[in-house]
Design a protein that fits this description.
With 136 residues, this protein is of the alpha+beta class. It folds into two domains: 88 residues, no CATH class; 42 residues. The protein contains four helices and five strands; from the N terminus they run αβββββααα. The relative contact order is 0.16.
Length: 136
């Protein structure tokens, strides 16, 4: 795990740049090309790239937003496509598991939904939905 991966908590990331103002924006990309998730073929090709934007955690009073340049892969053996999967980030989610756990622990510790809405930049309904999913 790189030094940046240790700080962010997501392994196999290469940080391209960091911008700081009211919030912290980290631009990163994966360091390794994975095997095919369908047939485990190792020589997959990059078809395209897209950007995933995730709320990650807070450092002090600043929210860390990850801008991940994620490839879409093509497997020549099974002729299927798949997108890069990052550890600690679920597919089709716009926040990391660390951020969701941080919101759950804050709300479970007595912080109101209104306060979490202001500090974390998510709605009260999202806070409630995440809280219920962790309670299950």
């Amino acid at each position: 795990m790189s030094h940046a991966g240790t700080i962010l908590g997501i392994s196999e990331l290469e940080v391209e740049r960091i911008e700081r103002d009211d919030n912290i924006r980290v631009y990163a990309r994966p360091t390794k090309r994975p095997s095919c998730i369908h047939c485990n073929y190792s020589s997959v090709k990059i078809k395209a790239t897209y950007q995933r934007t995730l709320k990650h955690t807070r450092q002090g009073n600043q929210l860390i937003t990850l801008h991940l340049r994620a490839p879409k892969y093509y497997c020549p053996q099974c002729q299927r496509y798949f997108r890069h999967r990052f550890k600690g980030v679920r597919p089709r989610f716009r926040s990391s598991e660390a951020f969701r756990l941080e919101v759950f622990e804050a709300h479970d510790g007595g912080v109101t939904q209104r306060k979490i809405t202001r500090t974390h930049g998510i709605s009260a309904a999202t806070t409630e939905r995440w809280y219920q999913s962790f309670c299950e």
